[in-house]
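Thread: "does anyone have the structure for this chain?"

Original post by V.I.:
We have the sequence but no experimental structure in hand. Need at least a predicted one for the grant figures.
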Amino acid sequence: MIAGMASALSGIQTGGRILSVGAHNIANSQTESFKRIRGFPEESSTGNEVRITLQTDKHPRSQFLSGEESISLREGSNVDLGEEIISNLQAVNLIEANIASIKIQDKVLGSLLDLTG
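Reply from O.Q.:
Generated one for you, tokens below.
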């Protein structure tokens, strides 16, 4: 029972990290040449924890002209706000599912304690 709660807590922490990465990308979406970071959840070797592997997306995105005196071509951010919103919604769903799991485990544990008492 405790291992299940620890696993659910790990899922909540993972969702929080994914939200943090998404917030970082959204905050820098208008920064010139910014490359978005992607967080990939992976199961740990023990099997009861989830860790996040971060990767920088190196793909170029839009380019724009800038400068008044001398015109130059500059690279914009490669952040797609639609993708970030979807990723953040998935992270929120991950957090909510793990919270529901903890609530159910807590209820079952309470019932077991009532039986032994």
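V.I.: this helps a lot. The mean pLDDT is 86.
O.Q.: and The beta strands are 37-43, 50-56, 63-66, 72-75.
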